[in-house]
Amino acid sequence: MAGGIDVASDEQGYDRTEMLRAFDETKAGVKGLTDSGLLKIPRIFVRPSEELAQESTCKKTQVQVPVIDLSGIQDSDRRKPVLEEVRIASETWGFFQVVNHGIPLTVLDGMIDGVRKFNEQDVEEKKKYYSRDRTRGARFYSSHDLFMSRTASWRDTLTISFSDPDQIDHNELPACCRDSALEYSKHVEILGNLLLGLLSEALGLETDHLKNMECTQGHRLHCHYYPACPEPELAMGTTKHSDAGFLTILLQNQIVSGLQVLYQGQWLDIQPVPGGLVINIGDLLQLVSNGKLKSNEHRAIATSIGPRISVACFFSGPVNGDKVYGPIEELISEENPAMYKEVAISEYVAKFFATGLEDYRALDYYKLMITEFLSAVMAAEEIYSIVPGELENCQDKYSISAFAEHLESKLCLVSVGTEASYVSMDLLEPGAGRIRRPSNHFFQLIPATLTNHGTFIKEKIKCSLQRIIECYIDDCLVQFWAPKTAGGRCFLTTSGQPFAVDWLCKGFCWYRKHCSSHDYLVDSEANEAELGPPGRVFRSGLPESSPDLRLYSAKDYPLRNQALSCGIKGYMALPVFDLLGQNCIGVLEFVVFSAEYINIVNEVEEGLKGQFVVLTLLFLLSNSFVFLQTADLRWTLNINQPCLEASHLQMKRNYVDHGGQQLALNEIKQMFEVLKRSAQLHLAQAWIPSKNSLIVDNTPNGTILMERAILKVFVDYEDDYNSPTTHFLKACKLHSLIVGKGIVGRILATCESFFCPSISNFSITEYPLVHYARSARLTVSFAICLQSSLTGDDIYVLEFFLLPGSSDGQYSWSFLPFLLTIMERQLNSFKIATGQLLGEELSVKAIEFCKDNGFDSFNYSIR
Ligand SMILES: O=C(O)CCC(=O)C(=O)O
Ligand SMILES: [Fe+2]
């Protein structure tokens, strides 16, 4: 027995309710368990395996919630910048820390010490306070939702209610922490009022606005005690939740960080700051601010070092009254219609206690009805037509959870057309007996006619989209483009196809609208300007992307200008294949909104902007693969597929690392070092076969693909992550080469050497990375195909970008003999892939463009 719980019953069948009851009856809390010296945690504390598995894939980032210095806050010069910091933190993170907040360190330490004394006193004394009766002014318990949650929390809590401060009977408070709690309560109330004053001003309201709404009338201290946990990776201190009240001020002891906030789908530690307090916005403040201030999800992990002590002070308004709260009138306008219903605080509190913490989000219950919400979305059209420029900074967001609210947390399928009707699909967990709140919001527009086959694919796509959106990518729209035939022609359409977003903003509505009325022609008669990115991806079977839409010309992307005016920044399209048929069944299009930038700028730093979109795209790329696969679909970058032989390439492609590759690469690297000094060279990179090299011949039109048969890049350029050159290089890594396309692709087909004085003249179908190359101002290109005696049949393509000296390229031509001499000297193990030695006469194919946008090629000899 451990603390009254028979841990051994794990092995002999498991009666969870009985175990919970036994644990509760010990009245000794989690500390009672640890005091008995247990080494394994009882099963009621072990999180479900799916949850634990997800945890292991969770990455960590270095970002920190803002720390705001409140010193001198009453002086007007100082107040302004602080207000701005508070506003940004509350609108983006919903969390920040404050220092110099006016509560003396002795009061903070006294509070922590009081909580420690209470928990570490004689257990019999503590038991007197053990209660689940919420009317008691002070009570002790382990997890308020113990009998409703999937996992019991590894913590004990002492709650002291100051809901009616004048009436509090001091004798109700435990003697060991009475004075410290009363002292802390006095100070924290003053700070709460100060913060609500700042938040009122940040919302553009009078300082006293929120105070006059009685948001700080009454508060409760939840004093948490998290004992050291013998198996912290299996347990959770406080499960993921958002705080239901208006505002929370959290004091934590300094020994170990345990509080984490959900940020971009990742859990981020909130490191204790000496003398600091954590502030977070609660659900009610999000509601009354009409969604402007953000109530963010957070949790406290179990730790091996302990005890961790924290004191959460909740300002939840006059809990016992019938006061009604709704979005503040001043914050509602035609452009920003009310997002939430009014709520009576008594009803609100009752709902909170009727549900387990992990399943409850107060806001989900009070979102406006779908019809009202839809009309708000449609109003975006009018707003747009009145102020066309406005959408460029489309930051106004409407939460799609409004849909979910109406459908009571069910997946929503919206049918539009003449008979608009709503159909809902059950997301009830079978047998779970309670509604599982979907963490994302997904919906689909269904056209009147649907073939069975179409429905089947749609179901699979929907399933993938749901998973993709689950990774919590802010401000990203994903939509599916499916083929259709009409009038004997073949098109791609997204009208009536699944799409998913995590937030709804005007830019999204508009982009979706443009796309729904634009079909891309994709049959063999389609010309380049008709294909657009989805069309090209569908035909080539290869992904395409751009971190900045402006890199595309209007010809590359017919909806470019519309997309830009909707505030879209990053773009990516992925081909989707049926696993069995290996046919491209459509294209998934991802667009990333500029609002993403704005958030990230506030939170990280200015310079990371461009990088972020590239990272987002990479992230999407890698994740989508996994998600498509779970839906029995795939896209091309499947490195686990066996390599396929493409015989007509006449190259052995089953790559084996001969160990000599590193030596061969060193030779190339050294040669690049020598070349670095020549003024005519802009950039150089080497393409080498990779372990994952793969040639696939399964695309709809039979194009031969060589996937990522790539590469290490050695270049001479400033490693500025936001430069067009960096974007070009990242794109080279990210995208597959198509045999026969671009210069390197042509070389893969023939092993010849190529020279092109103006690669920017290629169309995007002829050279899929041309938009990146144009933006990096790469014009003159020379590329040569080599083999090294150190690595047998492996080929190496060296690609050089020269600085243009004159329009006819003559100046660059004159550089080639020099280049070949350096290669001959430096690349001792190499010969040209067509057989000759470096230094012998080299035949180079030159590509020249004609006035009509076509091009010719000629053979030239060097040396
Ligand atoms: O202990 C902590 O750090 C977090 C506690 C918390 O989030 C809460 O009580 O709402
Ligand atoms: Fe919380």
Automatic annotation (TrEMBL):
Query: Fe2OG dioxygenase domain: which residues?
Result: 217-318
Bilayer-spanning residue ranges: none
What molecular functions are annotated in GO for this chain? Answer: 2-oxoglutarate-dependent dioxygenase activity; DNA-binding transcription factor activity; L-ascorbic acid binding; metal ion binding
Sorted UniProt keywords = Iron, Metal-binding, Oxidoreductase, Vitamin C
Per its UniProt record, what InterPro entries does this chain match?
A: DIOX_N, IPNS-like_FE2OG_OXY, IPNS-like_sf, NLP, NLP1-9_GAF, Oxoglu/Fe-dep_dioxygenase_dom
| Gene3D superfamilies referenced in this protein's UniProt entry, alphabetically | B-lactam Antibiotic, Isopenicillin N Synthase, Chain
Q: Which example biological process does GO assign this protein?
A: response to molecule of fungal origin
**Pfam families recorded:** 2OG-FeII_Oxy, DIOX_N, GAF_NLP
| UniProt similarity note | Belongs to the iron/ascorbate-dependent oxidoreductase family.
What protein name is recorded for this chain?
Answer: 1-aminocyclopropane-1-carboxylate oxidase1
UniProt organism field: Sesamum angolense
Taxonomy, top ranks, is:
Eukaryota, Viridiplantae, Streptophyta, Embryophyta, Tracheophyta
